[in-house]
Amino acid sequence: MSSEKVENTRRAMRWGLSCDKGVCQERVSKNGKEVVEVCKFKPTIKQVEENSADSQSCSYYLQKYEALVAKHSLWNYHAFFQIMKFNKKLFADYLDRKVSVFDEAHKIEDQIIQFVGFDIFAGQVDECNLNSEKYDFSDLDSMIKLTDDIAYSYANKIKNIKESPAFQNNPDYELISKLERRYDKAAQAKIDILSDKDNFVVNDPIRDLNGNFRTISVKPIDISKFAKTFFDTEYQIFMSATIAKQSFCENMGLEKDDVAFVDTPKSPFPIDHRTIDLLNIKRLSYGSTEEDEIEVIKTIDRILDEHSTVRGLILTSSIPRCQKIIRYLSPKNTRRIRLCHSKNKDGKTQDEVISEHASDPTGVLLSSSLWEGVDLKDDLSRFQIIAKVPYPNYKEKRTKAKMDKFPTWYTSQTLTKLLQGFGRSIRSNDDWAKTYVLDTAVNNVFFKAQQMIPKAYYDVLGMDDL
Ligand code: SF4
Fold first, then answer.
1. For residue range 382-400, what is the model confidence (pLDDT) as tens digits?
2. From ligand 1's centre to the CA of 21, what distance in Å?
């Protein structure tokens, strides 16, 4: 959908543009009374099903409801999981399908985790008239208490509104149902957490520059018992070039015997289009010496010299590592580098940086976040350098807890990201790029993950005799 700043919202809707208002129902005051007003452009699913929706209806809801009433539909994870978690009953008639296909299945855990546990925001604490300073943000019991107080506060609000004369004269059910949803969410989170306390971790709170609390999340280590909510059809097909059956089943709570696994024996792309050179320069970790780090960067410099007339990609594990690489490259090669993160200086988006890269014939992207989800096809990248193995950040509390409890998960996460990285620059049969891996730790990952490596990578990794 295109986006354009238009003053006249009615005209914007007619052009099928997206809405920057984004409040599909809101509390407004009418005749001195607070009511919930539903946006006049919002169609109902029945209207869409019966083809009787106004042609000027909101294009977001038209698309969403059209997808729900269609025989087959394509969803992004967030939109689909949102329905599965919160609106399954409401849309039950439309969700009764035989098969669901989940693409990029190696990312499902990251998606599910957004829907389990509890995220608490400063605004919500204020809305419930609670004082955030009374709670200990490093303690699970204190966070359960906060969740409970939030639920209690919403329950009270609902009771007071229902008992008020204003409500009895002119009931405002939209407002009540909004508060009830908030109550349900907090109450359900408390039940989930209490049902399996050892499975939950409190992440470090996010604070603003003045140290004020902004948000905190309480997340499960093991998501397996929550995953079923999202997989409701009789058959599910999970697709990915980088998953291993055992760890995937363990993680998603699937019975291994219920799952058929298709491990494509050969990559469809010719081997000489996707060669991987394990250069084994030095092992990089938190404790690496300065000399080792610099030796790796000097090797990056040399590879950049060897590929001085084409575009390329350098992947590493963190933003400070990106900055260090830039500091030690030769001035000539530094000029070729474009840092590319999910947020960039000058507010540039990742796509904007990549399109600048596309117009620089010898440009090189340097990133700790382009391991997945980016398509550097053909001349956009003819070589890629994996400077550092992408271990998950164990300084994050949930990662550390999960790594302690499920060591295989940690290895499989690292392997998946590494293999995803290998694929960034080879996007079709005719596409080609050379990959260099500099961090010696890669051998350890391959050794530990031997049973998890998909067969399609055996040829390039010299594992054909396995
Ligand atoms: S219903 Fe559509 S047009 Fe109306 S506020 Fe919501 S997104 Fe915007």
1. 999 999 999 998 888 899 9
2. 7
